[in-house]
Specification:
With about 160 residues, the protein is an alpha+beta fold. Helices cover about 15% and strands about 35% of the residues.
Length: about 160
């Protein structure tokens, strides 16, 4: 690895640690409740809705992404769908649930500059970092965790 690659790896690791600390702080801030019970959410029971990106549907697991606080959403990419370069106002921790997701960074989509992420792999996307993705090989489901309010700005267009 070059010096720049090592520096970038350390920066990403530090950002991941900071994002994890934020999520832990948000979750642990609530007092314990004896009457609270865990909820099980089956993928088959999710209510999917279209997102601003054609071919990508979303489902909220926890929270309300448009409001403040912790949220967890699933994003389902149809086979072959590309998300154009875009940003979010918050840091996102994205984990591949199923399929292979090709992730890239920058303001221009370039499939040759993507990295294949397999199920269980995680990528931390810093707030306002331009990025894009591709469900090149088939349907992909991602889990995205962040602290809202959030939104999406397509690079070159301002949409929320």
């Amino acid at each position: 690895m070059t010096g720049d690659q090592v520096k970038r790896a350390y920066q990403l690791a530090l950002r991941a640690l900071c994002a994890t600390c934020l999520v832990v702080a948000a979750v642990s801030a609530a007092p314990a409740r004896e009457d609270a019970t865990p909820s099980i959410v089956a993928v088959e029971a999710l209510h999917w809705s279209p997102t601003p990106i054609r071919g990508v549907d979303g489902a909220t697991i926890v929270g309300s992404p448009g409001k403040g606080g912790l949220y967890v959403v699933y994003a389902r990419y149809a086979a072959g769908v590309r998300s154009p370069p875009h940003t979010h106002p918050d840091t996102r921790i994205v984990t591949v649930v199923s399929g292979t997701f090709y992730a890239g960074a920058g303001t221009e989509f370039d499939g040759s500059k993507t990295e294949a992420l397999k199920p269980g792999m995680t990528i931390v996307v810093p707030a306002r970092a331009p990025h894009f993705g591709w469900a090149k090989d088939g349907q992909v489901i991602l889990q995205e965790v962040g602290v809202g309010p959030t939104g999406i700005d397509l690079v070159g267009r301002n949409r929320h």
